[in-house]
Amino acid sequence: MASLISCPHCGTRAKEEFFIRGDATPVRPAPMAGDDMWNDYVHVRANPRGRIREYWQHVAGCRRWLVVERDNFTHEVFSVSDAAAGRGGER
Amino acid sequence: MAYDYQAVHALDGMIGAISERRVNHLAAHRTTAIAMVLAAPGQTAEAAGILVANGEFEARFSGPGEWLVLSEVHAPETLAAELGLRLGHFAFVADQSHGRVALTLSGPDATRILANGIAVDLHPDAFPVGRAANVLCNHLSVNLARTGETSFDLVVMRSFADALVGDLKVMARSFDLSVDFATR
Ligand SMILES: [Zn+2]
After folding, report:
1. How close does chain A come to B37, measured CA to CA in Å?
2. What is the interface pTM, i.e. ipTM, of the complex?
3. Which positions in chain A touch B65 (Cβ < 8 Å)?
């Protein structure tokens, strides 16, 4: 597991300051989407090896949800960004 | 029916009555006015400007658009109302005066004591005077602020204050540290 995460708000911190909140790739379906789409969104995960996108929450720091792009095999971290920034959010 | 409420400090009975003050000293503040300020969506710059422009309180970075505000001038009872008045619709204010405990660690070994539990570079170039950050101290999240070259403020949630003081005592085992309430 990557041991250092560079939070865009707090700087480089140890992984112990974060909670991993899961896969950041599934896109939330429309409210009236079919049950099979909602089932896939809620329950089905690909579990790939290699480069992945994950939600990491900086619980002991700024408490923001971040998107960490990393390799779960080599531990290399490619990018860390605020989850709201990717959706045109404020902060 | 009316009730009388009595404010009890989270560290009452846990610390105090020291015989001598050592070179490194941890002081717990009895009454510090503290409030959390969260900027309204899109109003971070406006809220920051109002907080920075005033010498009556000190705004410490907590997260983007979020500050822990401490004041030596305003009373715990009035700080939140005062901030609410000045910030208007630019931010939301929540009084934390009795919800958090403020501690000051000072002395020549302050950074070395903190380094035993905090994994953040505390060299003055990386963490200069005036810088503040939420950091993990062992297993507790605290707001750490550098107030001088060898002095730091730690603000922690009230119920964790006893545990944090205990942790700091362990972190300072190879240094000379005394712990007491601040005298003002
Ligand atoms: Zn952060």
Report:
1. 13
2. 0.85
3. 90-91
